[in-house]
Amino acid sequence: MPTDQPAATAPALSCQELHVSFHQDEGVGRAVRGVSFELGRSRTLGIVGESGCGKSVTALSILRLVPCPPGKIEQGRVMFDGRNLLELGNEELRAIRGKDISMVFQDPMTSLNPVFTCGYQIQEPLRQHLGMSKADAQHRALEMLVKVGIRDPKGALNSYPHQMSGGMIQRVMIAMALSCSPKILIADEPTTALDVTVQAKILDLLLELQESLDMSMILITHDLGIVCDVAHEVIVMYAGVVVESADVRALFDEPLHPYTRALFGTIPYLDKKTERLSVIPGEVPNPLSLPTGCPFHPRCEKRFERCPREHPRLYDRGGGRKVRCFLYDQ
Question: Quick one: average pLDDT of 152-160?
């Protein structure tokens, strides 16, 4: 687990009551429903949950990258340096994207422009945001490619995305995101296409740069082991809402929400022999047809008569812990 340290009073980023919908022919899909969190300075916030829970849409909404149409940020506030990012003009927002707040996207194969070399795409933000010369930007790009573990940085610099493997493109994406030394890094499954050895190196690099740059980080992942190693605080999402938020130590010591417990139950352990891995029955609901009441109740072993009828609020359990479950309605 990361070294425990007090967070600065003023958060690096504050998200308040974020609602995002997708307007389609079949209806309106409510992908994010009232998500709120704070990211502390020099801290890492982990966001976990199954695919389709709204994690990536939440991350994309911070920089207003949700495709519109069909997506629409219905309401909310995302505060950064005293400004609401959801109200900024396009020019103001472009000055922040890639410089102050960078993002590593979930799918590296579709995130780079196929008609430009990887070197050009890494150098572009350096020249745009930092005003570097072509030579200085190239030197910095080579430096970053070495840091993310690419053995032939000059070759990668002159290669097009289609000439590289998924893992190599992922590393190029990370190099590009970190090249301008951002204040905040949003990493959406940053190590998905990497093998275990390289994954460990990339995570070590992120932690090293976080410490040296005083960088804050939002880490979206399915891997609870990574969350345990890297994050300071964690929010668990399900069906577009936050169902639990806690300090990482408290969450791993005692998960409260039945969904969080179910996620922990799916983790395989080397010292425990089981015939079959545990699974969570059912599926994440479609945002177009969300269940009434608690969104997790159709899959929950702890459900009772109140769960299908009412939508639970986030109950404050003290010490920064919150949980959205009627079991804690004292």
Answer: 92
